[in-house]
């Protein structure tokens, strides 16, 4: 079932500013036993997420699971993937390879020009998740950068944002975390608003932290370089072309369907008109008359194997009238068909 996502960022931020119950807790103002109780409840989750105290204060560190919900492809670097292989496993370069050409006169390979990283565009599967290690002072921007580093994504962290998704009936409410908001404290706040462990586990099934593309209205374009802006324009042109082609394809498909239906109607009307005209012409040839009053004298029509036989009007003087027949059924001259002596 497809769920509807509603962005409630502005409404939730206003409610958090007006209500102290929805505000994230400040660990510096809380007692250690209180925070320890929340940590124990959080560590009882079945997802394997854990929180620990860093020192004697209330500072925390733990794991955070971030779900991926990206629509556009991202650029990933393959350099670190290739560097994981040992040098003995790599094939030796050819004599005329660029690696040999980069050697200096003394044959030192340390001064060789490094090979630029290979970038590939890749669609991250939607719905997958990644666990990152954060502290209570790690902001959402730092968590995004840590997640991009784990995937070797060569994109600016400003293009992405963390959202708090909450499942409500058949819809999802999404609230974007600010760049200074700490995701780990958000998890701790889920424990704080729960009255007991069972309620927290139910809340954990409804809430999750999701990585998505940043809204266009919230992007500070002044922070990007000319090369990045040029790349964005190229992406916009490509998306515009794809949407235009999709719209043209849909309208052309509908237009072709309408034209085919119109052709079928024209052929059907032509066949019906031709059949109707042929029917009237055949009636005139065969002599089929329209019905008249029953009191008037009407001709009778007889049929044989060779065709119709048209009878004359019956005469009052002779009860047996001679019949006008076709050539095949004509009687000899001077004889009638009444089997009389005439």
Automatic annotation (TrEMBL):
Q: Which SUPFAM superfamilies match?
A: Ubiquitin-like
Every Ras-associating domain range: 120-216
Q: Which GO terms are recorded in the biological process aspect for this UniProt protein?
A: signal transduction
Which residues does UniProt call coiled coil? none
Which PROSITE patterns does UniProt cross-reference here?
RA (PS50200), SARAH (PS50951)
Output the InterPro entries linked to this UniProt entry. RA_dom (IPR000159), RASSF1-6 (IPR033614), SARAH_dom (IPR011524), Ubiquitin-like_domsf (IPR029071)
Q: Where is the composition biased (Polar residues)?
A: 7-21, 87-105
For this protein, the record's Gene3D superfamilies field holds:
1.20.5.110, Phosphatidylinositol 3-kinase Catalytic Subunit, Chain A, domain 1 (3.10.20.90)
Region Disordered: what ranges? Answer: 1-21, 86-112
Q: Where is the SARAH domain?
A: 218-265
* Protein name, as recorded: Ras-associating domain-containing protein
Q: Which organism is it from?
A: Schistosoma mattheei
């Amino acid at each position: 079932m497809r769920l509807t996502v509603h962005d409630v960022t502005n409404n939730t931020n206003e409610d958090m500013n007006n209500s102290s119950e929805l505000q994230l807790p400040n660990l510096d103002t809380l007692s250690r036993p209180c925070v320890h109780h929340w940590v124990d409840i959080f560590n009882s989750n079945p997802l394997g997420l854990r929180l620990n105290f860093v020192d004697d204060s209330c500072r925390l560190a733990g794991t955070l699971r971030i779900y991926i919900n990206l629509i556009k492809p991202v650029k990933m670097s393959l350099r670190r993937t290739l560097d994981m292989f040992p040098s003995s496993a790599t094939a030796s370069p050819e004599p005329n390879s660029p690696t040999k050409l980069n050697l200096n006169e003394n044959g030192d390979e340390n001064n060789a020009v490094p090979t630029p990283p290979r970038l590939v565009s890749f669609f991250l599967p939607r719905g997958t998740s990644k666990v990152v290690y954060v502290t209570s002072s790690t902001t959402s921007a730092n968590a995004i950068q840590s997640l991009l580093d784990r995937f070797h994504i060569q994109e600016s962290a400003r293009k992405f944002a963390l959202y708090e998704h909450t499942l409500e009936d058949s819809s999802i409410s999404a609230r974007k975390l600010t760049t200074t908001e700490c995701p780990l404290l958000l998890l701790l706040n889920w424990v704080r608003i729960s009255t007991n462990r069972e309620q927290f586990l139910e809340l954990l099934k409804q809430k999750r932290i999701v990585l998505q593309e940043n809204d266009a209205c919230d992007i500070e374009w002044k922070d990007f370089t000319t090369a990045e802006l040029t790349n964005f324009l190229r992406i916009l042109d490509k998306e515009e072309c794809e949407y235009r082609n999709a719209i043209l394809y849909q309208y052309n498909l509908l237009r072709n369907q309408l034209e085919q239906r119109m052709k079928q109607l024209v052929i059907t009307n032509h066949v019906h008109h031709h059949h109707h005209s042929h029917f009237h012409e055949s009636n005139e040839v065969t002599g089929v008359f329209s019905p008249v009053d029953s009191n008037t004298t009407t001709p009778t029509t007889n049929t044989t194997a060779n065709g119709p036989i048209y009878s004359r009007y019956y005469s009052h003087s002779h009860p047996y009238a001679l019949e006008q027949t076709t050539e095949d059924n004509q009687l000899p001259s001077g004889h009638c068909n009444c089997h009389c002596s005439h």
